[in-house]
Amino acid sequence: MSEKHDLHSHSLASDGTLTPTELINRAKENQVSVLALTDHDTTLGIMEAQQAAKKAGINLLPGIEISTTWKNKTLHIIGLNIDPDYSELKLGLEQLQKKRTLRAEKIAEKLAKKNIPGALEAINKAAGKSMITRTHFADFLVSNQYVNSQQQAFDHYLGQGKSAFVSIQWAELETAISWIVNSGGIAILAHPLRYKLTASWIRRLLGAFKDMGGEAIEVVTGRSTEQDIFISAKYARDFDLLGSVGSDFHSPANVWVELGRLGSLPADIVPVWTKINCDHF
Ligand code: AMP
Ligand code: MN
Ligand code: MN
Ligand code: MN
């Protein structure tokens, strides 16, 4: 039987809505045999996920989705098969966590100026130990009926250039790649078509990414059309990068993206998992 890989997913440790255990159980139900947990800037969920995966009999790759800045653009870099205990990575993620805490305060201040008080308190309560993301603010705005959907929350308040947007310098791209690679992992450019970059900028980025030690790009995501896969596969070929496949699942409430529901990688693209020994997890 062929294996089903889903190498990009979120849990309650960042902006997913399922606990790591619930996520693993859903992966099992959906016949995913290799899952990567890739929360935003935190590895907090990995230990629980690993225990649940052992019970469920699926392979769990320890992963991360690191927020980075390259030439003033925010880019997400997936690290697969990282060592969560590697100190350079741990210290780097702690820095990002601090930036997130400060940013959350500033976002709340901007919302307060728009007559939306109390966001920070509500979010800190809801997030607990989770990494605070804009998704938490979006959920706050929806549940208090300031907007009707997460999308509206981003369109009206949280998206780039909107009234509660706070710009932030994340980790340098090269630095984040080195955390991943030095901890034994593989660095992957997440959802390359979601940054609103022109083709020539994507090419510049891929050249730089590869020079910095990046090895793969996501060719198939949970929202990719056939056309998206075609375009991304061409980038993988042109830059001799491995191809990854990941849904970017966050929540069962989003019916458009399901764990393990993915198009297939074109046959000539070398899958990133051929570089990872999945057996010992
Ligand atoms: P952050 O890393 O805290 O800036 O938050 C980014 C997260 O917000 C992404 O990982 C997505 O899960 C979510 N997000 C970004 N844009 C949108 C959008 N337009 N609609 C819904 N969720 C979004
Ligand atoms: Mn997210
Ligand atoms: Mn992302
Ligand atoms: Mn993601």
Provide keyphrases for this structure.
281 residues, alpha/beta, TIM Barrel, DNA polymerase, domain 1, 2 domains, 8 strands, binds adenosine monophosphate, binds manganese (II) ion
Give structural notes.
The protein has 281 residues and is α/β, with parallel strands linked by helices. It folds into two domains: 5-92 and 169-280, Alpha-Beta Barrel (TIM Barrel); 98-158, DNA polymerase, domain 1. Helices cover 40% and strands 15% of the residues. The protein is built from nine helices and eight strands. Helix 4 crosses helix 5 (134-143). One manganese (II) ion binds at residues 65, 76, 190-191.
- Overall mean pLDDT stands at 97
Total domain units: 2
What series of H and E elements makes up the topology? EHEHEEHHHHEHEHEHE
- Which CATH top level class of the largest domain fits? Alpha Beta
Strand content is: 15-25%
Determine the CATH superfamily of the largest domain: Metal-dependent hydrolases
**Inertia-based shape:** globular
